[in-house]
């Protein structure tokens, strides 16, 4: 699942994964998230993952936006995209996040071609932009 976290000013939480991550080490991501645990709903997992990765407690429940099937040459899985407002000071997990900042949409756009992004997150980002523009997310 992919959770877009924005601060009180509407800036987007962006982070770089640690170099020790087994999948896409040192890549950038514009989402927090993870996988749904056994017996857990997508909505429960979205709140748990957002709070864990941002290092906060007391977030509002993330709002589900749409679901899609992510496919690449190596992977295929169903994903859900959420959004949440995080007005709390963040303290991301050091073992997961090497760097983080809240960026404006324009700042993020300027970095899309320059930074190495996690492929599934970049795909979800483009789908989210299309969804908000009134197009299909899938």
Supply the key terms.
3-stranded mixed β-sheet, 6 strands, alpha+beta, globular, 3-stranded antiparallel β-sheet, 138 residues, 25% helix, single chain
Describe the protein in words:
The chain is α+β, with helices and mostly antiparallel strands. It has helices at residues 42-54, 105-111, 119-132; strands spanning 2-6, 12-17, 28-29, 63-71, 76-85, 97-103. The strands form 2 sheets. A 3-stranded mixed sheet has the order 1-5-4, with helices on both faces. Strand 4 and strand 5 (76-85) form a beta hairpin.
Strand order of the largest sheet: 1-5-4
Distance between the termini: 15 Å
Number of helical elements = 3
Instruction: Enumerate the spans where pLDDT stays under 50 for 5 or more consecutive residues.
Output: none
Radius of gyration: 14 Å
**What form results from the Cα inertia axes?**
globular
Please give the largest β-sheet.
Answer: 3 strands, mixed
Strand content: 25-35%
- Write down how many β-strands occur, each being a DSSP E stretch of 2 or more residues: 6
Structural class: alpha+beta
Give the ordered list of helices and strands: EEEHEEEHH
């Amino acid at each position: 699942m992919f959770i877009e976290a924005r601060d009180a000013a509407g800036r987007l939480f962006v982070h770089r994964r640690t170099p020790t991550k087994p999948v896409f080490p040192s890549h950038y991501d514009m989402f927090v998230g993870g996988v749904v645990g056994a017996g857990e709903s997508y909505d429960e997992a979205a709140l748990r993952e957002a709070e864990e990765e941002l290092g906060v407690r007391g977030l509002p429940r993330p709002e589900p936006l749409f679901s899609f099937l992510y496919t690449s040459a190596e992977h295929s899985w169903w994903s859900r995209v959420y959004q949440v407002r995080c007005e709390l000071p963040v303290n991301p997990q050091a073992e997961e996040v090497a760097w983080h900042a809240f960026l404006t949409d324009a700042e993020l756009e300027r970095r899309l071609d320059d930074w190495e992004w996690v492929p599934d997150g970049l795909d979800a980002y483009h789908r989210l932009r299309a969804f908000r523009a009134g197009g299909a997310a899938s």
